Amino acid sequence: MIYIATNTIVVSRSRIAGAVTRTQFDAAVAYLEARYGILRSVVDDGYFVERVGDRSAVENWSAPETCSADAMYARLLNADLDTAENIYAIHVIAGEDALDIFMLSSHAITEATSLVELHSCLAYMCDCVVRQVAPELEEQPFPQPVDAAVERSLALLPADRSCEAPSFSGAYAEIPMRAPRDGRPVSHRIERIVIASDDVDRIHAASHANKCSVHALLLAAFALAIREVSEDSPRQILMRSSVDMRRRLEPHVSTELVFSAITGHITPVPDLDRPIFDIARHIFGEVHDGVLNGSIFRDYVNYPKTFGSPQQAPVALNVSDMQAVKFPWPTSRLTVTGFEYALGWLKKFPNVSVSIFDGT
């Protein structure tokens, strides 16, 4: 299977309450790799091949006194991932009764849905090892891309639903970028905002009452905020959505598939002078129509060629959100207390990742 480099890394984090030793954690990672064959691979000349040797995926095991979560994020968001050595790496901040587990991976291999599966399964493996119980699991076959399913969906579209590839011209609102004074490349940094569960409930209620989605409402809110800080305050903007193809294909693809099935869909907002809910309904309708007219399927087909290329449209912001993060693998001795993720790209690419874990 061919590996398509996107030059985008993903940093994901889960938090586990409970005591786990380094030896126990190493055993849990071994179980994780026994289930998911793709984790035992590396990239050689653009192809996935089996990893040779016994190099551990756990690259760092730190104490809370020596490394904070923010410091770990700052380091990993600007880290390089040598896929010829490992296609993922694990970094842990281990306290006496809690673990902060960070996974560094490539956007070409994992995205939010896959990472929830991996973190959930790893928590289950840790729980089994702590309880001295052998995990009950079957090895998952090496995942196949959803390319064939996307091609079938495109072929089944009626001719009158087909649409031409969009072209964008004119001035668009963008976030002013901060450039270091010494001329070095701009580094990624994370800004975290925690939204209370009551506020999340109100956002859900407002979006449904106004016949749009939470995702569309988030994009509308960010679009208006960007217009406020952008130079010359243009009236139009390009917002980009991370779209999980698993939910767009018929039949749906299992979320256990640990391989990136993501694409990016650009929605033009032509008039930022409209009220926020008008903008949200426009975004919601445009993304929904993208499935009906096949544009989202074409986004997926063209993704490797357009993502990060010089032809990339002047997108102001990419938004990736998970409305209900649920860890499907059970635990009894340990408790998962949170999940989040962030993207880092080698070029200018502002990104917002939203994860709602257990309603908080």
Short account of what is shown:
The chain has 360 residues and is α/β, with parallel strands linked by helices. The protein has helices at 22-35, 69-77, 112-130, 147-155, 197-209, 214-229, 276-292, 295-306; strands spanning 8-17, 41-44, 47-50, 58-62, 88-94, 98-106, 237-244, 262-269, 317-325, 335-345, 351-357. It has a five-stranded mixed β-sheet, with helices on both faces. Strands 8-7-9-11 form a four-stranded mixed β-sheet, with helices on both faces. A two-stranded antiparallel sheet has the order 2-3.
Note down, in words, how this protein is organized:
This protein is an alpha/beta fold. Helices cover 30% and strands 23% of the residues. It contains 8 helices and 11 strands. The chain has helices at residues 22-35, 69-77, 112-130, 147-155, 197-209, 214-229, 276-292, 295-306; strands at residues 8-17, 41-44, 47-50, 58-62, 88-94, 98-106, 237-244, 262-269, 317-325, 335-345, 351-357. The strands form 3 sheets. It has a 5-stranded mixed β-sheet, sandwiched between helices. Strands 8-7-9-11 form a 4-stranded mixed β-sheet, with helices on both faces.
Write the layout of secondary structure elements.
Layout: E1 8-17, H1 22-35, E2 41-44, E3 47-50, E4 58-62, H2 69-77, E5 88-94, E6 98-106, H3 112-130, H4 147-155, H5 197-209, H6 214-229, E7 237-244, E8 262-269, H7 276-292, H8 295-306, E9 317-325, E10 335-345, E11 351-357
Parallel strand pairs: 4-5, 7-9, 9-11
Antiparallel strand pairs: 1-6, 1-10, 2-3, 5-6, 7-8
Helix pairs in contact: 1-3, 4-8, 6-7
